[in-house]
Every structure is written in C-alpha cells, then in structure tokens.
C-alpha cells in the first residue's frame, strides 16, 4: 500500500524547490515517469532513493515519510512557500515562511549579545 503522506510530501517539496519531475529524475538517475509514480503513490522509492531525496530536499527520511502539513488545509499555492514544522509534544503543525525559518537559523547561530539585542528589538521579556 502506498504511503500517501510520502507522495504528497515529494510533490510539495519538488514544487517548493521549483524542480520538474525530469530534473529530480536526472538527479536520482531514474526516469521522470518513475519519479511521477512516487508522487502519485503508484510506487514507493527504496531506502537508497529515500536517502537521496532527503539530501536533495534538505530534510530527514522520517520527515519525508511522516511530516504532515494540515494547518487549516492550506491550498497548494500557500503550502509551496511554507515549511511545515511539527511542534514537539503536540498534535499541531505550524507553518513558517522561508523568512521566518531564516530568522530562526540566524538567531540560533547568534552569540549571546546578538540574541539579547534581538530580544530587546522585539520587546521580549526574559522568563
């Protein structure tokens, strides 16, 4: 039985990264028809291909298979520009824009002084 979540994620990620099925097929050394079968759920990629897909899409194999994006059922156009983030210990997903993800990454790589400035600029209070 096909993993519908995997098929949906492959389609969403390919569109998010502006790839064609032919481009992904070339990266994986398969035909675009074979890749299309993965996106439609007709077939499932083997573990090696899943690992390669996770590298192409900068995500984990686990996320490819299980990550769900159902925050208020956004349209495919909206999903294209968002990242689905699973909140730990919660059944809810949230959507982050690319800019929000970049801000989080910059915050995490910042030193303590830069983080303090960010908190002050955004008027966060220490807890």
From TrEMBL:
Q: Where is the HTH cro/C1-type domain?
A: 10-64
Coiled-coil spans in chain: none
Q: Which UniProt keywords apply?
A: DNA-binding
- Give the superkingdom in one word: Bacteria
Q: Does the keyword DNA-binding apply?
A: yes
* Xref: SUPFAM superfamilies: lambda repressor-like DNA-binding domains
Pfam families documented for this protein: HTH_3
Q: Which GO terms describe its molecular function?
A: DNA binding
- What PANTHER family does UniProt report for this protein, alphabetically? HTH-TYPE TRANSCRIPTIONAL REGULATOR XRE, TRACRIPTIONAL REGULATORY PROTEIN-RELATED-RELATED
Name under which the protein is recorded: HTH-type transcriptional regulator ImmR
Record the organism.
[Ruminococcus] torques
Recite the lineage of the species: Bacteria, Bacillati, Bacillota, Clostridia, Lachnospirales
């Amino acid at each position: 039985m096909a993993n519908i979540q995997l098929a949906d994620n492959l389609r969403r990620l390919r569109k998010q990264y502006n790839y064609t099925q032919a481009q992904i097929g070339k990266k994986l050394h398969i035909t675009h028809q074979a890749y299309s079968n993965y996106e439609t759920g007709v077939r499932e990629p083997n573990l090696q291909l899943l690992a390669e897909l996770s590298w192409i899409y900068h995500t984990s194999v686990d996320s490819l298979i299980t990550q769900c994006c159902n925050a208020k059922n956004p349209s495919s156009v909206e999903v294209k520009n968002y990242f689905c983030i699973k909140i730990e210990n919660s059944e809810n997903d949230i959507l982050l824009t690319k800019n929000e993800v970049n801000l989080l990454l910059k915050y995490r790589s910042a030193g303590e002084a830069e983080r303090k400035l960010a908190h002050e600029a955004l008027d966060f209070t220490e807890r």
